[in-house]
Design brief:
The chain is an all-alpha fold. The protein has two domains: about 5-80, no CATH class; about 90-150. The chain is built from six helices and no strands. It has helices at about 5-15, 20-40, 45-55, 65-80, 90-115, 120-150. The longest helix has about 30 residues, at about 120-150.
Length: about 150
Amino acid sequence: MSISEAIAVFNKLLKTTNNKRERRIYESFLKILENLKNKDLSERESPLLLKELSSLHLETSSDNSKKYYKQKLTEFKAFLKVELDFTTEKHYTEIGMVYGLMVGTVLGILYGAVIDSNLGSSMGLPMGTSFGMLFGLLYGARKDAEAKKLGRVV
């Protein structure tokens, strides 16, 4: 399946649904496919992409199309990341925030336990969570800027 054919499939699906969540999934697919169409793919990347689009079976209709296409979108993003080294916009920012939140929460609890077991956790937890998320956000934004600079964002 070519990129143009996949775009046509998702445009057709967009016209047939009124469900907001389904529309969001289809629009995400369309955005990625449009960006891939505008990229200069190498001779190695182009056949891999076409093969992956064919293996996703996008024309297949299912009873729960939202679940089906959400799963296919996740598979497609994983393929782009692993095989072609492409990421979506704000990919690293989202991951950085999650890891920052986890690490910050742990550090906040530890900090609170060291200061005072009663009052420290109520102070340490919000501080650790906030600072962890902030540092994760900054780190992720820096990684996203690097990926964009290298032309690896779709």
